[in-house]
Amino acid sequence: MVGGNGRYSLTIRATIPFMFTIQRHETIGSTNDEARRLALLGAAHGTVVHADEQTAGRGRRERAWFSPPGNLYMSVLLRLDAPLRRLSELSFLTALAVADTVDALLPKHTRATLKWPNDVLVNGGKIAGILLEQADNATIIGTGVNVLQAPPNVGYQTTTVVASGGIASVEEARDILLERLGVHLAVWQEKGFAPIREAWMVRGHPLGTSLRAGIGSNPIEGRFAGLDDDGALLLDTDDGRKRVIAGDVGTPLV
Q1: Helix, strand, or coil here: 97?
Q2: CB 221 within 8 A of CB 240
Q3: pTM, entire model
Q4: Exposed, middle or buried by CB within 10 Å (0-12, 13-18, 19+), for 198?
Q5: Is 131 helix (H, G, I), strand (E, B) or coil?
Q6: Mean pLDDT, to the nearest integer, of 66-82?
Q7: Which domains are assigned to the chain?
């Protein structure tokens, strides 16, 4: 609702699914590294590592992840009865859970969007990051959500929950994210990737958007044609439809 001072306020109550057990740390090197260590020691499905601050946080391709106090840094350990080839689908599932969380924390007119493969954006600014890793038969889902602070001088637009008009504590963000992760995980386990893919498309690039995707010096440029059944990016190029299975996405250079 909107209070008398014109500021947006929201009371949020989220019930953490019983499968999750939270371990809280004030400072840690990396929540994913700690979750990996616990996984190798036999930690149970649903173990959650939450830190107020990371000193060695990282994103995809070992990029450093800005991790000062005031944001959400969390890794979830899952033990799933699923083929290894399907675990990449969890990236899209997690992006939906993070986007739902961001929506719940922001004014109703503001809605998170998604950029392939798993970036969560608000008004074009990156507000969260996701990192999936394997530790033997366990999958670790790392998430970082910018609640109060965004990384400076990173070469792309960033934002935070507060800068986008939201009011939230880190604990609220964590509890909502775990609740939404539990919901989407249940759908994925019961019905497969199709409903996750469909929900991602609603928040993703509009069909026909010009994109530049890939790794290294030979990116592919084309028009967004959706996601393949396994989550690969589909681009319509002058040479026909192409599948992109890894890489960064941006708009074509002018």
Answers
A1: helix
A2: no
A3: 0.89
A4: exposed
A5: strand
A6: 91
A7: 21-201 (3.30.930.10), 205-250 (2.30.30.100)
